[in-house]
Task: structure prediction
Amino acid sequence: MKIAATPHAFCAHIFASMLLLSSCGGGSSSEGDLTDDDCTPTTNLSTTLQTEVDINGNVSLVPVSNNTVSGCGSSTESDGTIELTDSITTRFKSSEDFDVTTRLPSQGALIHNEYTMTAHFFLLRRLMGSVGRTRFFMDQDTGMRGAYIAAFRDKILEGESDGFLIRASKDKTVDAKRRLIQDSHEVISNYAGTSFQKMSVKEKGEVINKMLIERLEKPLSFPQSPEKWIQHPLATMAESEKMIAAITEMDRYTPEHQANLYKKASLHAVDRFFMQIRRAVTCFERPFGSGTSGRRIWYGYSPYNPDRYTQLGDIYRVYYNYCKVNEKGKTPAMLLRLAKGPVDLEKIIYLDKYIKAKS
Result:
């Protein structure tokens, strides 16, 4: 069981902007001379900035553009430059254009997920400043790899932090997952020369480690992914067809140590927490589509005020960390020695009463 933390929006952001202008003036047409008022030049800007962060913390933005410029009074030179006149009217086509159907939030600000994710990793780096070695098992969310490397760059270079990406099939049916589990048991049994069910937990771990050591010598590659992937020999209901890729240097470890790290890699604890908070707090439920409404997405559980997310998230975080016990009767706070026992809900809700009684 792990402490769950909510991200706080703090960190400096580096914004890169690209500007392409066109203008009116100076041109002529068979219909007569055109003035600045007769033409409406437009610029369609479609730009993708791909952020790349290497192990040394160097950030590079690689633009992939599909830009078109139309209008009058602008001329393109042989070297590709655009000559502009005094009158400039520019319109950008982007995902952040606003019209009568869209507007900015009336309260607060709408922050891109990548910015919040980066802030969260820098917060973790600050909170874990005195922690020795850290290991991160991460989903393939956009920007998570770069955010981790940027925040823990010094620890990674010192060999004090390791990062892994995990991918697993989540759209399999229950029957398909059970077949994958059975197949993985048969593969392990054939490798060990004995039945999977007859092996002890220790023996299963040793066999899986040996299989992982062999697979480290022949990693798998996927299109659009620079990492080398290793398939976990054991399939589970939570993570069938699980594959792991290291994004930090692993050569400093022995093959046995590397195999042990790959064997431990899992996102099950995080997925379980997400599932619990979605079931316990309705506003965190995923929006869903209805067949009677043409599969349109329904956001009926979403609050109008986004502050409710942080408020309800903080309440559940306190309950999860200090009140909710595991199968051994321990809370996450007890496991981290932040509390001696489970805390009663009454003591949290009526905190002032107990503080006064104690004083």
Q: What stands out?
A: The chain has three domains: 23-88, 113-272, 287-358. The first helix runs from residue 113 to 127.
